[in-house]
Design goal:
The chain has helices at about 20-30, 50-60, 75-85, 105-115, 130-145, 160-165, 175-185, 205-220, 220-230, 235-245, 255-275, 280, 285-305, and strands at about 5-15, 35-40, 60-65, 90-95, 100, 120-125, 155, 190-200. It has about 325 residues and is an alpha/beta fold.
Length: about 325
């Protein structure tokens, strides 16, 4: 395959001394090489920067940018800084705790060769070992089939990214979804590269990690909802109403149990239709109700009561560890 594109990989990093070598090596070992790899460190206070500098001394395509956004979560800021500094035609936003399969970039570029302006890869868990981790990985993989219609993009034409105004630094946790709205509403197409696999270390492996993750997203969603407006997300408000007010039905236990049963059946039939494995079929709907739906809306309630989201780590999924 002839590569007609210069691709800049951008990695926002904070305290990844244990993981960053895996990520960088997977980028360096691609069957089609990245034009440049820009590591944007957001004030790490472990050995991360020293490890990256060792790579910089060996590989000329790796560049290190050091910044300190102590007053905010710098993940989005780091991505935007990397985008401005990039000299490639395409921007590939990479997590700092992941491993890409060898043909990740090769398969991504198929979309751009066919006229797409953006692309999305296929996400998997990084060596899941627990029952929860394996179930999360299976459900994630089950959703991302060849029929999947992407609404976010992690590889984007630089000219289009700059034209649309970069990531919105005010919608932490939802910057990809918000940018996806802008991208698609402007008429651009997103290519789903199902053979480009990113194995993500930040996916949850325990009930606690999954609950904490979805609580975090729920507590950070209000700025995003304010920006996109009510009409563009009516379904979210309906679900929020159901899950926030359903506990009040406990005064009528039978009605509450009937509602939970209906919600269970709704998730169950969706899992069955997608082809979930039998060993997860009956457990996953209950798990999903608790750690996805109720955890998310508890986070929303928290942010409404305290008028703020809980403190978070500055990049990626470190808060879930």
């Amino acid at each position: 395959m002839k590569n007609n594109f210069k691709v800049s990989a951008i990695i926002p990093i904070y305290n990844r001394a244990n993981d960053i070598h895996v990520t960088l090596n997977s980028l360096l070992n691609q069957s089609i090489k990245f034009y440049e790899i820009i590591a944007v460190d957001d004030g790490s206070d472990d050995n991360t920067v020293n490890i990256i500098k060792e790579f910089v001394n060996i590989y000329k395509e790796i560049k290190l940018i050091e910044t300190n956004n102590f007053e905010t979560d710098g993940r989005i800021i780091a991505r935007n800084i990397g985008a401005r500094m990039a000299t490639g035609d395409l921007l590939a936003f990479i997590e700092s705790d992941c491993e890409l399969n060898r043909d990740w970039l090769k398969n991504i570029l198929i979309g751009f060769q066919n006229g797409y302006e953006a692309a999305l890869d296929r996400r998997r868990s990084y060596y899941p070992k627990t029952f929860i981790g394996k179930m999360e990985d299976h459900f994630l993989d089950m959703r991302l089939t060849h029929n999947y219609k992407p609404y976010v993009a992690w590889v984007i034409s630089k000219s289009i990214f700059m034209k649309l105004g970069l990531y919105d630094e005010g919608v932490l946790g939802f910057e990809d979804v918000e940018f996806g709205h802008r991208l698609m509403s402007s008429g651009y197409k997103i290519y789903f590269s199902q053979d480009s696999i990113m194995y993500h270390m930040g996916e949850p492996h325990t009930f606690k990690q999954a609950f904490k993750r979805n609580f975090w997203f729920g507590s950070h969603i209000i700025p995003y909802l304010k920006k996109i407006g009510f009409r563009r997300n009516k379904k979210y408000y309906l679900k929020a109403f159901i899950f926030i007010f359903s506990p009040f039905l406990l005064i009528w236990p039978l009605i509450f149990l009937a509602l939970i049963f209906l919600l269970y059946l709704y998730i169950f039939q969706g899992d069955l239709r997608k082809g979930i494995k039998l060993k997860y079929l009956f457990i996953h709907p209950i798990y999903y109700l608790i750690v996805n739906e109720y955890a998310h809306y508890l986070g929303l309630i928290y942010s409404l009561i305290f008028c703020k989201a809980p403190l978070s780590a500055r990049t990626n999924d470190a808060q879930y560890k």
